[in-house]
Design goal:
Mean pLDDT: 89
Shape: globular
CATH topology: Aminopeptidase
CATH architecture: 3-Layer(aba) Sandwich
Distance between the termini: 37 Å
Strand order of the largest sheet: 1-2-3-4-6-5
Low-confidence stretches: none
Helix content: 40-55%
CATH class: Alpha Beta
Order of helices and strands: HHHEEHHHEHEHEEH
Length: 198
């Protein structure tokens, strides 16, 4: 993924009001750059006819503890990037720490992929772009030897997104509530070669 600035713009347009967006463009740029530069990172963009990114998907193989490893590798720059957000809202610091330890519930090892985020610029939505991005992510994860892919999304007021993942073959693995009170669905999809085994 080359054009991080455009990816950040897609994120901000797609996830207005979400916590990562609150942390600001500088933090998001570090976050997405970190995923792309990691050997475990999985990242793809979808471009418009004029080659401007209008959608992206990111995740990682071996997602358990991935954010913690990312933070440990570049903690100083992440700290500076989050200063303004923490000053505006001091409770944001604790939430950043929790967010970066989130994938700890995932299984250990290279056999699992975690899909962290998929977004499409609002004016390009409902054109099948999100589906193409997720399918490309799953294909890459399978090529890396991942036997399953996991993701989480909000359970409430999020029917369209939940139906989107069900349509792509994801099944609810568990449901839980975050420390902030968000009710979440965790989905799992077995890769195609595994699901075809007897």
């Amino acid at each position: 993924m080359q054009d991080i600035d455009n990816v950040v713009s897609v994120h901000l347009a797609s996830f207005s009001g979400y916590f990562l967006s609150f942390l600001g463009p500088r933090f998001l740029s570090l976050y997405y750059s970190g995923i792309c530069s990691s050997p475990e990172g999985i990242a793809f963009i979808y471009t418009s006819d004029d080659l401007i990114p209008v959608g992206f998907v990111v995740g990682a193989s071996n997602p358990r503890g991935f954010y913690s490893r990312l933070l440990k590798r570049d903690w100083l720059r992440f700290s500076f990037a989050s200063v303004r957000a923490v000053i505006r809202k001091p409770t944001a610091f604790a939430r950043i720490v929790r967010a970066f330890s989130h994938p700890s519930q995932y299984p250990v090892g290279e056999s699992t992929a975690g899909l962290f985020s998929v977004a499409v610029t609002p004016s390009f939505q409902k054109k099948g772009i999100g589906e193409k991005l997720v399918l490309r992510f799953l294909e890459d994860a399978e090529q890396r030897g991942c036997k399953q892919s996991l993701l989480t999304t909000d359970r409430d007021n999020n029917n369209e997104v939940n139906l989107f993942y069900v349509k792509l073959g994801f099944k609810i693995e568990r449901q839980y509530v975050t420390d902030e009170g968000r009710r979440m669905n965790e989905y799992r999809k077995i890769n195609s070669s595994q699901s075809s085994e007897p």
